[in-house]
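Standup notes
- HV: blocked on the assembly model, inputs below
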Amino acid sequence: MKPNTEYTRRDWDSHPPYIVPDYKSTLLRGPKKPLIPIPHSLSELTGPVFGHDKVGPLDHDLTKNGVQNGDPLGERIIVTGRVLDEAGRPVPHTLVELWQANAAGRYVHRWDQHNAPLDPNFFGGGRTVTDAEGRYRFITIKPGAYPWGNHHNAWRPNHIHFSLFGPSFVTRLVTQMYFPGDPLLEYDPIYQGIPEVSRSRLISRFSLDVTEPMQALGYEFDIVLRGPRATPVDED
Amino acid sequence: MPKQTPSQTVGPYFAYGLTPQPYGRPGIADGRIVNETVPGERIIVTGRVIDGAGKPVIDSMIEIWQADAQGRYAHPADGREADFHGFGRTGTDETGTFRIETVKPGSVTGSDARPQAPHLNVTVFARGMPNHAYTRIYFSDESAANESDAVLGLVDAGRRGTLIAARQETAGGPVYRFDINLQGDAETVFFDP
């Protein structure tokens, strides 16, 4: 990357605000003072680069990476897509981390008190690195919905958490992927906190092409990170 | 042109995915950014993440991205060979405390081609934060460099102190204290880089 390149800014028409009143824990945790824009120096134009040494052979396959004595229960799915920048160019060789509840809607996390069962053969965490075309592919179990304490009878829609780095510290993104047709989306303040124009970008597409016969349903989910923006160069 | 994918909170249960070492799984990083062989002054940076009611945030995560003691980043945009990877990640504990073991970074050239004061780049993630927050940790024993730092210069003088970690000399070496206040009168300055 040339030093005269900057990244585009966070698009606040696409991202949720820090404080979403219906998502109650944002009220005391979202910064309230205006963010201060800063120019991009090497501190912003660089960021951690992770190689395949951080990724084990089963890390992308959540149906295998937690097995103790059998296969995990639930509906096997394939989740695949491309990581792109805002110019539509692939983001190659970038780390993608993922975590999720099991088919019953229970997280392995030691604080999760939901009375749904743990699955001894499902851990729920994985990671991979995109290929030269920015593609990633996970095999997993469709996560269940789970109840939470935000309001009476609150349930999170089925979702998978994603964490991405992209090429610099400013392209970092943590997000959640949802499933098409989920009736809980309408009632979920975390999803509804996203501006209406951009919400649907978090809903994966069912794909019969990705679906493997007799094996697993396929979902596609592309992720768009901030892209490089060339700054004007004096011509003389 | 495609548009940015919206951010969402890490939620309460990110630990086994992002900081999974307590679950018996290797993580991509932890709070120990350097090993014994990395040159530079060894420092500890520690503090608490605190919410708008003054309570510790026990389910947050801090990431650090930093230059080495010579001010070099391990990244192609820098182009020089750095002494280490320079990335750290750690959750906060039951008191909201995080702890980073590293070396003090050197000065990095700013976008105006002038040297910046030494700093750590920080992102903060938590349940209840739909977006991560960006801040920087500067060092109290660098007052002259801090005075002329272009990014600190963008911050109201009355709030600059929220970005400066206080150095204490201890038997175990220098410890810098840096609390992250998500809200309130002492709200940490957050950037929009």
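- HV (later): unblocked. The first strand of chain A starts at residue 5 and ends at 7. Chain A has one domain: 5-227.
- Next: hand off to the docking folks.
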